[in-house]
Amino acid sequence: MRRQFVYSVQDFITNVRRSPETGPTLSKFDENLRAQWKDRMNSGLFMYRLGDIPTRIIPGRHGYVAQLNVKRATEKRKPQEIQNVQQEFNANKFNFNKVSPEEIIFEMTKEGDVNEKRQDEPGKMVVLINVLTKFAIQSSIESILLSSDPGFRMGFNSLGAFASVNHLHLHGYYLNHELQIESKSAQPLLPEKGFHRFPDFPGGFLFYTESDGVVDISRTICKVTDFLLDNNVAHNVFLTRGHPPCDQAQNEESQQSRNGVRVVVWPRIPSFGAKEPSAFNIALCEMAGHLPFKNKTDYEVATEEDVKDIIQGQLFPEDELHTLEQRLIHHLRRSPCRVHHLPELRHHGSMTDSTVASLETCSFT
């Protein structure tokens, strides 16, 4: 019998601050997640033990958080070779239906969803290719809201954006270091849709919501990622606690507020075929300013300019990003969200691979 974690909107943590002096009081979600993660680690289910990770803040304006995690590069499962952003699913390849029951931390179910059948639910568990759905986006935002720790992050790599498995899945981890993405200001594009643009490097699109706007913002983000897929654009998505994107925080209290969730979408040049070795991959956490280095030399000597040069090679030129921005504005003004045919809406945590910091949360949608 799988362990259940049943939650409701009353479990969302709506008052979160980032404080350098004191750590957060853990929520019920955090306590369950950490306890079960530790249990799986002690049971030897991980491919490697994470241990203490050397960390340094790279000097410069962007405040990149660099960490040395050699085992993540040398002892993880070999990534699948990806050739298309909507590549057909291959049941013979690894997918999360192949993990053992012991690797599942718990099954998350939202109250009210347990016995409901929606029009987009055929009623059986299926495997989807690694393409975001509205439910996957919504459940990710809700997971962030269930945590009282501003260091809990989630994210998604599309095919062609360093996804290593062609099965819909999301990553979740704790990082006890502030990222500038939590508080950077952004330029409003369609504020009524929660749609903004990051003018700073690396350029991307920002959405923001608090607990009362999750459904609507999930629908809008889904429209954006559907549009990117339809136009064969690879993308990374990062979710974190943060404050409103246009809030010119004037005092320390408002600067440290993390009551809402920021969701950043980065369109990018696709990376198909065998993944190229480098100092670090360019995936969701690297785009957000968290850099897990593969080797000690690069970790110790990398400068901010080195990092920007590596990331820049995966980004669209500014004129192409601006054109995409205008097309997305037009698209959001007129189009409904695509209906994704989903099974019963549940998601699980799988402990097959250690990720960059704590855990991997796999969405079985």
UniProtKB/TrEMBL annotation:
GO CC aspect terms: cytoplasm
Keywords in alphabetical order: Cytoplasm, Guanine-nucleotide releasing factor, Hydrolase, Nucleotide-binding, Nucleotidyltransferase, Transferase
Domain GDPGP1-like N-terminal span(s) in chain numbering: 28-131
UniProt main location, coarse: cytoplasm
Known EC number: 2.7.7.78
Record keyword Transmembrane present: no
A Pfam family reported for this protein in Swiss-Prot or TrEMBL: GDPGP1_N
Reactions listed under catalytic activity: GDP-alpha-D-glucose + phosphate = alpha-D-glucose 1-phosphate + GDP + H(+)
Example GO molecular function: hydrolase activity
Residue span, GDPGP1-like C-terminal domain: 197-332
Reported function: Specific and highly efficient GDP-D-glucose phosphorylase regulating the levels of GDP-D-glucose in cells.
Family stated for the protein in its record: Belongs to the GDPGP1 family.
UniProt name for this protein: GDP-D-glucose phosphorylase 1
